[in-house]
Amino acid sequence: MKRFLGLAVLTNVLLVGTMIGTALSVKAESTLSIVYPPPKHETIAEKIFFIGTASPKEPVLINGKEVKNRSASGHFAPSLPLKIGENIFVIRQGNKKIKLKVTRINNQPEIPKTLTFAPGSLIPAVDLARLPDEPICLGAVAPPNAKVSAQIGQSKILLMPQIESVELPANSAVLTSKTGSQAQQNLCQYQGCTTLDVADNYGKPIFTLEQNNQTVTSQSQGQISILSPKDIRVIEVIADVGVARTGASTDYSRLTPLPKGAKARVTGKEGEWLRLDYGAWIRAEETKPIPENIPPQSIIRGVTSRQVKSATEIVFPLQVPVPIEIEQKEDTITLSLHNTTAQTDTIRLDTDPLIKRLDWQQVSPTKIDYTFELHHRQQWGYDLRYEGSNLILSLRHPPEILAVPVAESIKYDDLDDLIEDNVIESDNEKPLENIKILLDPGHGGQENGSKGATGYPEKKINLIISQLVRDELRELGATVYLTREKDLDLSLEARVAMIDQIKPDLAISIHYNALPDDGDAENTQGISVFWYNTQAQAPAMFLHNYLIEKLNRPDAGTFWNNLALTRPHTAPAILLELGFMINPEEFEWITNQEEQEKLAETLAQGIKEWFFTVESAQIKQDFLSGSVRVP
Fold it and tell me: What is the mean predicted confidence (pLDDT) over 577-605?
């Protein structure tokens, strides 16, 4: 698993010492070596952990103090505090010595010591475009107790020091349980907002700093424009998947991706980002301007559905491809069409193996919600595409796990007996023969992932476990795909493309974990799981709990997380972190061949049990409704 933005990345650490094999990596006695931090490391963290190994027969000293907690093979991972600036650490064992410099960078704005603005602190730093009467906020960092103002055209805005503000921790703080916000005074951060009602290009604001009868002026990097409501600017999404966000940077959360061909009006701009008429932001490079002076709006009338192989497709005829959003719940999925008004009298939806009912509502003059109530709680994936101006929503049917014929089901008066005979005590030697599973061994090639105390890379153990799990699943009859079969570079985009193309019944990305620099590597162990789409939550929770119980491993948590390998929506997709490479004790468990085989067998059995749990629930629903599926 990669480290987090703003912190160091274990994948770039140079290997110190000789790489040793999996079975021997925790048994061989090593000379002193430090895998992390690398030489001349820089961080914003208040502390740093030291991942390394040495002979267990002699003590290891860091700056003269003995490292107390070490594994049987001599691995260690203590954390030590950092002061702002350079920190020198000398690690010794016997006559061997390693000297490291770690620099802690102050991530707070630099406060000028003379009458000037802090470099790069003037906001806007990029070109800004808004509609008339929208708030426009300016900012600067300057010495305390000064008077700061800004001139935009004929308007002068006074910027006030932020006496009370709240600093939020990074998203990665969730992994180290340091999520509390901190109230603080930022007397050197000045902010102010205004509105402009006349469409014009106002250029770059001029900032003025006054103190002790001295005055300094400076100009921001970004200029401010007010868009005319009469100037209709329309874009079309040209990326295969247009990444829509809640704000104008990758720091903001993702919304439902926009299908290629979707059109929308531009209502704002911030640097390389465009704000669209329904509120989302998208990078300009994922779009193209189109020569239209009419806002993209559509009416919709009749809606139809059709069954294709393993899916139901719903066709929404539109006049123009509009922006869309999807919301999944446990047994419903809602499609929202923006910039659309209904003239609907008729919808055709025949008896369907997936959809129980379709309800729709014009929730605002330009937005329609279509909510599909489903027969079963587990969803198996969806896809969206435009064919011309027709929007096609494809909902995948459930796989036939152990479908019970109607002729068999009517023999039973008791539901528990039906499930007991046909699921729990099924004599099928290949119970997963109708199931497709994709396993993704994380990292590979130049991307090592995290590293254990000996320098052993995550990419190797990811592949070993994936191959062992593949073999176990094939014994159970499953069709199994691996994104990589050997050590090679494979992009995240290529892995996601395989999921979208194969459309497995379950996709699992296999990883082992690390922590941000301020984490506690010495005391953090356990299995964790990550999911994104609602359809992936059930398998994520089930497999996480199953592995912890059956293997008696620590629980490192379950997380909703916006990761490339959890975002695919064409199949339930999860990411498993099976242990912490950087923890000395757990690293020995990770690299133990017998434990690897036990883990692989348990994970495969857990996957089988989850499918059986889903099947039992579906049989129960079908039995109670009198509609047991015919295979």
Answer: 98
